[in-house]
Amino acid sequence: DAQAKVDALSVGGRNLILDSKRLITSGKVKFNVSQNIDYENIKHLAISCDVKYTNAVMATGAGKKWFRVGVECRMLFTDNSYQYLGLWKIMNGVPSSFSGRIGRFVPAPANKTIKLIDSVSIQIHDINADSISVSNPKLELGTVATDWTPAPEDVESSVNAVNADLTSYKQTQATKEQATAQQINGLT
After folding, report:
1. Torsions phi, psi for 156 (to 5 deg)
2. Which of 25, 42, 62, 105 has the most CB atoms around it within 10 Å of its CB?
3. Angstrom distance (rounded) from CA 57 to CA 123
4. In this structure, how many other beta carbons lie within 10 angstroms of the beta carbon of residue 167?
């Protein structure tokens, strides 16, 4: 029934990953997660990231086994068990190209309570490509992965940085004005 499907949608929108405006072209970068999460009431999580690659294939050689690009996090439960939530584009032996945002949602396990979400990272493993990148990870509550936005904490820290710059500028200007006034007073 279409109405039941619409009723089941839950859009979160708030990025739980801190300082997530990052892009990598190799390896792995880890992120912190917001401390402002009510873990006990999580019903669904949506995870997403931007991925772009040209003529990508799986790398060959000793120790090569993952052949993937994407984002991953770990959910730790109150019983101390854990589960990884990953979102990947997987390479094979046929060259392929892709550019876009990928996303998926996962219901929280019905018989478990999430205690913590950690080990969030964007990764590129065992891939040869003309060019490749992964960027802008987002973890949010809900059943729909939405476009990337910064975490509210990131916006707040940006505003604080601008305020600090303005305060410093005002102090510098006041010092200059005072020095100018003293020079003028010295001339009279």
Report:
1. -60, -45
2. 105
3. 16
4. 10
What does the pLDDT read at residue 137? 98
Q: Is the dihedral of CA 148, 154, 159, 161 positive or negative?
A: negative
Per-residue pLDDT reduced to its tens digit, 65-95: 999 999 999 999 999 999 999 999 999 999 9
Residue 34: which H helix or E strand, with range? none
The domain 2-150 is classified under which CATH number: 2.60.120, 2.60.40, 1.20.930, 3.30.910?
2.60.120
Q: What is the pairing mode between strands 96-107 and 44-58?
A: antiparallel
8 Å CB contact between 89 and 69: yes
Taking the whole predicted model, whether its pTM rises above 0.85 is answered as no
What tens digit of pLDDT does each residue of 8-21 get? 544 567 999 999 99
Phi, psi for residue 127 in degrees, rounded to 5: -130, 135
Asked whether 175 and 162 are in contact (CB, 8 A), the reply is no
Q: How many whole angstroms separate alpha carbon 146 and alpha carbon 138?
A: 8
Q: What is the pLDDT of residues 21-37, one digit of tens each?
A: 999 999 999 999 999 99
Q: Please give the structure tokens belonging to residue 38.
A: 């009510």
Residue 162 to residues 84, 132, 154, Cα–Cα distance (Å): 37, 33, 12
Strand partners, 72: 86, 121
